[in-house]
């Protein structure tokens, strides 16, 4: 299985800032390291970043990717529509996609959801408590309930998303807010998992349980091997003679 | 309540064709007449067609619409993106939308769904039998189970849509196919109902039970009056002091 | 429309206790009064309590009820199975049911759900904040978001229920817990709404917004009038000749 | 993984009948043979039948079972309630359950669903065409779309079940009916899959694609290994100190 971790990669390249201190290898580097720790050697994890040609996502990279992770924040509009088209088609064709934290406002997530994907937020270093409401789901496997994150940005409802197919995690914050922090959808032949914990100002992606959630998410979102009826999915088949 | 029936209005303007014979007042005219028959005098039904300026959907019309119905077929790409944006925003803000038959491939429906919305099809005048699988749903109220349409175009699975929030009708066809022919989703504050029966080659929109489904759909999709937290839906509200 | 508010009616009959002080007319009395305030004169609200013959729910009462509300706590096992059977059949036949607070452990709710319906709890007079995650749902109409209850018993996840068809409210508590506090299901031709705020130790049912939620729930759960295909729902129909 | 195939085992023990001819090793024998063919050697498949002591399901068998399959037809009422309780508790605790064909009326399925589970039916040797509406679901992996069964009993809507969490297969029949023939639910920590094809009068369980569906279903329903928070699922945990 081949995993591509995509990152906007801006905050952490500004010297002397908190993100640069927390993520010297980039947020993508931390996420990739966590995946390598928690997934077996059958999984090859690579990274791609926005400043690379075609944002590091030329056709051959996207086509070779089984599961993509997407982290972006301050320049969603700067992502080339042609790349968004390419990733969108890949998801519909079966590629898994994990959208992380501020990626809720990314072009690719909004396009897959069809809504504004807006939410309440406040960055005040509050405690986030992540509760499992689907204990049987493979993404929750091995995750403590609750999972406590000492400091995080608050994301709160109303989160303007389509009703999730599966609601896995709910988060509460010190201020009393609540958020649907782990949720899934199917789009075409592809599986999408949104997971909100993870901000550039906090060491969330170094947290072993958060890494485990992402690793579980990758396993869950990976395309089913043989037998996926892609043709049936994506073009009219015409007459069925029965 | 104000209802706007939108129609591409091309097939039925070609003299001497079957659509022109079946729908002398246009498909929009037939749909509007059916709605007027089945809805009370509290509902004002108007129509808009593609050849009009801004496709008959300038901002003031869209803003004044509580529920829109959308029928299109042969020129989906010709619909102006600015009008699609306007309708999209209206749905997210609470306007109801009924997408009909070949409207499955319209820009607005694909944008709301995030998928290809492709399907199997065959136009061979087959019997369509519409079964109710959500008998308690208000859209099914008063609809015979099954509802038999003597001649229709076949629409078959796999229909590449997000999993419906509510699956109301399933159709079978003489060839043995099946289709999720009546389904709903919420997008932002707006309700969306897709209903597949209705082709320009058949008198489906003159069928009283089909008219009743559409009238029920309009009632169901109408915005909730006061109290809809549109602000919460569409922009971050910031601090909650609790 | 005829509404029957059922109550175990034990806590509040113990003189000198907090429940007796808060609910001198019984919890059923407070709920009924709230419904009468918020619903129109087309709705007739009556009450029934556990100590009455057949728990106040003989066949003629159940058959004449459109929507029932159920509050119980300390003697769920004492409810006669024959009465539970009767209410269960009524729900499947189209009667609406609102299950309140500690009613999560009632025989009728567990039978409709098929699960243990267990949850975490702690009675410590904490603040409950009720957030709306389905702003378009009629049960949320006119309800402030968030709705703050100054003192309540804590109910927390994991709540062992089937995945709700519609998730309307999420609650957080001072201790950091979260709860799916407003959720719906369909069973047969009947609609079920569970709403957790409301404990005998706190004046929750005197709160106007809580009363409004219950009134909205009654409207939502009321049987669809004519046209409900009860026969199709409840017995095999045999041959369809097409 | 340990799989137990349970069967009422009556039809096929009547000499000279069609079921006896089709299923000389019993329906359970045919199902078990199919599972052994399609699952790896890590899966141990055993059988249990109704005429055995405790219906072949004493506590030690149920506790040792990861996934159970259930086929019954003519004597659902004869199944001991104590055994149904045991299987019910096992499902809530994480055991997978596949309910087959006429098992829709079994005590265990009705108890897990909370509805009548009634349906339309007609036994006339009609063609059943099974369509996939969730091509990405692991239970559909490798299954032809459509899957054609030359002769089967007709099962038709309205099927009085709770709305499925996942709808995987839809079947059509020569008479024009439709049926939600493959659907899933979660109950507690357990996964439930209902699959309708399979009648004692037809050789359905010898069909390789049907066997593949059941094998896929077993893999999907198997309990998640370590980490399943059974305690959280099944009893209140009390105070969370955060």
Structural overview:
The structure is a homotetramer of 242-residue chains. With 242 residues, chain A is of the alpha/beta class. Chain A has helices spanning 18-22, 26-38, 59-63, 81-92, 107-113, 208-221, 230-234; strands at 2-7, 44-49, 67-71, 96-100, 120-132, 147-156, 166-173, 178-187, 190-195. Chain A has a domain at 2-115 and 181-226: 3-Layer(aba) Sandwich (Rossmann fold). Chain A is built from seven helices and nine strands, in the order βααβαβαβαβββββαα. The radius of gyration of chain A is 18 Å and the shape is globular. Mean pLDDT of chain A is 92; it is low at 226-242. The A-B interface holds A 92, 111-116, 118-122, 156, 158, 160, 162-163, 165, 175-177, 185-188, 229, 232-242 and B 92, 111-116, 118-122, 156, 158, 160, 162-163, 165, 175-177, 185-188, 229, 232-242.
Short description:
With 242 residues, chain A is of the alpha/beta class. The first copy, chain A, has seven helices and nine strands; from the N terminus they run βααβαβαβαβββββαα. Chain A has a domain of 160 residues: Class I glutamine amidotransferase (GATase) domain (Rossmann fold, 3-Layer(aba) Sandwich).
**What best-fitting shape of chain A do the alpha-carbon axes yield?**
globular
Question: Biggest interface: chains and residue counts?
Answer: A-B, 37 and 37 residues
Straight-line distance between termini of chain A: 37 Å
Which sheet architecture does the biggest sheet of chain A show? 9 strands, mixed
Integer average pLDDT of chain A: 92
Strand content of chain A: 25-35%
List SSEs of chain A in N-to-C order.
EHHEHEHEHEEEEEHH
Oligomer: homotetramer
Instruction: Please name the CATH topology of the domain at 2-115 and 181-226 in chain A.
Output: Rossmann fold
What is the second-level CATH architecture of the domain at 2-115 and 181-226 in chain A?
A: 3-Layer(aba) Sandwich
Q: Give unreliable regions of chain A as ranges.
A: 226-242
The helix fraction of chain A, in percent, is 25-40%
What structural class do helix, strand and pairing data of chain A support? Answer: alpha/beta
Number of strands of chain A: 9
Rg over C-alpha atoms of chain A, rounded to the nearest angstrom: 18 Å
Separate helix tally of chain A:
7
- What is the CATH level 1 assignment of the domain at 2-115 and 181-226 in chain A? Alpha Beta
Widest sheet, order of strands of chain A:
2-1-3-4-9-8-7-5-6
CATH superfamily of the domain at 2-115 and 181-226 in chain A: Class I glutamine amidotransferase (GATase) domain
């Amino acid at each position: 299985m081949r995993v591509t971790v995509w990152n906007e990669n801006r905050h952490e390249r500004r010297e002397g800032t908190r993100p640069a201190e927390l993520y010297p290898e980039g947020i993508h580097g931390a996420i990739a390291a966590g995946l390598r720790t928690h997934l077996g050697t059958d999984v090859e994890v690579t990274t791609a970043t926005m400043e690379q040609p075609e944002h590091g996502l030329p056709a051959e990279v996207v086509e070779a990717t089984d599961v993509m992770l997407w982290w972006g924040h301050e320049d969603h509009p700067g992502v080339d529509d042609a790349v968004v088209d390419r990733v969108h088609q890949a998801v519909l064709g079966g590629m898994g996609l994990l959208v992380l934290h501020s990626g809720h406002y990314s072009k690719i997530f909004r396009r897959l959801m069809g809504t504004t994907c807006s939410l309440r937020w406040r960055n005040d270093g509050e405690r986030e408590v992540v509760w499992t409401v689907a204990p049987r789901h493979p993404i929750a496997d091995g995750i403590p309930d609750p999972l406590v994150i000492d400091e995080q940005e608050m994301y709160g409802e109303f989160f303007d998303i389509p009703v999730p197919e599966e609601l896995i995690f709910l988060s509460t914050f010190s201020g009393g807010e609540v958020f649907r922090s782990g949720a899934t959808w199917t789009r075409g032949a592809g599986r999408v998992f949104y997971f909100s914990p993870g901000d550039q100002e906090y060491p969330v992606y170094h947290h072993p349980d958060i890494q485990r959630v992402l690793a579980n998410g990758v396993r869950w979102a990976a395309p089913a091997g043989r037998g996926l009826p892609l043709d049936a999915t994506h073009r009219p088949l015409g007459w069925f003679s029965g």
